[in-house]
Amino acid sequence: MNIVLTGFMASGKTEISKILAKKLDYKLIDTDECIERNEGTTINELFEKYGEEYFRSLEHEVVKKAAKEDRAVISTGGGVVLNRANIDALRQNGIIINLAPDFETIRERIERAAATRPLMKNSSIEEIRERFIMRKAFYENCDKKVVVTNSKTPGEHAEEIIKIMSEYL
Ligand code: S3P
Predict the structure, then answer these.
(1) Which of 8, 33, 138, 158 lies at a CB distance of 3.0 to 4.6 Å from 19, suitable for a disulfide?
(2) Contact between residue 93 and residue 70 where contact means Cβ atoms under 8 Å apart
């Protein structure tokens, strides 16, 4: 059984997944990192040179492979939920946990988060907010939800996920 983390950009997936993998002694798979390693370049450069659609096809291939793992924490890119086939694959051997911040929580993180994220870097705050709202229904379609706030630490969020997962592991 895998633990899959989804959520909007800067919702804390990377940090929380590292803590989870360590605590549970699970393998850690970060789909963005896999893409960067496979392609030998950055997400920013992939978006700039080849566009979002090309990135999404690379992402789908990485997701399909990760979904076949077992005892893995899979940290996904914020847009993985947009493709139903990604969710179907990840659900076959995993519980999909959505890290759900409110927009204010994200807003406070944008300055630090934007540099490595093409969809933040090149967008106004209003455009980021619109994307956040547009994505909501996709995130709500995940299996479980963990509310993320800046007043809790990643470790506390990880503990909550372990509690949720104790029913399945
Ligand atoms: C994206 C999120 C990014 C990365 C890419 C696109 C998105 O990952 O996959 O920049 O569409 O939300 P993070 O969620 O880790 O920022």
Answers:
(1) 158
(2) yes
Q: Is the CB of 118 under 6 A from ligand 1?
A: yes
Rounded to an integer, what is the distance from CA 138 to the centroid of its chain?
12
Those residues whose C-beta lies under 8 Å from the C-beta of residue 33, and which sit 6 or more positions away, are none
Direct distance between the N- and C-terminal alpha carbons of the chain, in angstroms, rounded to an integer: 7
By the 10 Å C-beta count (0-12 exposed, 13-18 middle, 19+ buried), 19 is classed as buried
Tell me the C-alpha distance between 91 and 99, whole Å.
Answer: 16
Q: Which atom of ligand 1 is nearest the CA belonging to 44?
A: 10
The percentage of the chain sitting over the pLDDT mark of 70, rounded to a whole number, equals 100
| Cα angle, residue 166 at apex, residues 165 and 167 outer, rounded to 5° | 85
The DSSP bridge pattern shows strands 94-101 and 144-148 to be parallel
β-pairing, 72-75 with 27-30? parallel
pLDDT tens digits for range 45-88: 999 999 999 999 999 999 999 999 999 999 999 999 999 999 99
